[in-house]
Design a protein that fits this description.
14 strands, alpha/beta, globular, Rossmann fold, eight-stranded mixed sheet
Length: about 425
Amino acid sequence: MKILVITRIYTGIMDSLRTKGWHPRGIPAYYKLLEALNKKGDDVDAVCLGKVAHNRIARYEKFRFNNLNIDFHVVPYRKIPLVEFHLNDIINDISQFFYCFKLGTKKNYDLIYVDRENIIYGAIFSSFFKKKVVVRLLGIAFLIRRMEGIKRWLKAPFRYLSYKAPFSYVICSKDGSGARYFIERFMNKKVPYEILLNGVDKFEYTESYNSQNNFLRVKYNIPTERKIILFLSRLSKDKGIHLFIEAMLKLSKYNQRFFALIVGDGPLRKELETIVGKSGIQDKVKFEGQIPHDLIYNYFKSSDIYVSLNLAGNLCNTILEALNAGKCIVTFKRDEIDRTDEDTEDILSGNAILIDKRKAVKELAIVLNDLVNDGEKVQSLSERAGALAKDLLPSWEERINYEVELLHKLVSK
């Protein structure tokens, strides 16, 4: 199969593109797919388009990584001096499309695979050149909000109309972000689609793995009477870290038997570290920053409670990893206004504690106080999460192989 994969430049592969060494971080649904296509022997061109300016990615490059038989095409965003911002975007979009068009017509691909940033390119290929195009939505995030209402439609008519194109298939991540509503409301109703859970890295529960139960208690000298609350995400507003810190401030006023560990980095880190310091709870709330991916399960395994407050949806990779590790989980229930977390509630109801996004700080503080004081409840929810994971979660290998087989079937039709 000859396949052209067109995506934006994802943060998770930026270091790989800069150093020319394949060590992706994050976005596993993308990089694991490329690895699986490569393993199957497919002829793959991966076009990575800069939609904003990136440091140290300033010129066009085509290359292969040592361990991948895939041609990577890096097409950066070019800032044109004295040209207004929106006009700059339009010029870049046109030039990037013509690059993809040239590549697409030159090699006669069996399939073109685009992400939502490049939906217009996919629509052109499928509508005017009758190419088989698969749209890959890595979640919907806040896309519903951007698409509803005539004013928004008028602001970006081509993008809006592109979702109505005759694609061959749509694949969307089941991440709690309102995928079904979006696809049925905004996309071509004749186009088949699937909404798929991401996979997890399956571990054998060996003696070595179980020895990590005390990893964090040893690292931070945490007394056994304190419950360890883990928050692992990018530290930005859309991930709800500000709500988590507000809840910790509230919780600390009537309970001292907790240790909150915040793993990740982002634009709000310094501001929130200052708030924690001024509030005098730095002995109970610790910012660790980013950690290597291969240590993540040590953190899940040795924590007691995992909290996810993603405003765009909470069936994200970290929730799946927390389930896989058998953790007591606190996250949002469905929100009828944003249409988020419908799948989250359907799957996790009875196996996790679900709170109201609109009352997040108050409810989170109350729930965590209850859990910190009730070890049996934490244990019960942890066991339920582990049991659910066994029945629910595919390994990443299973999940990606399913998608690869789906793409091959589309080509052979």
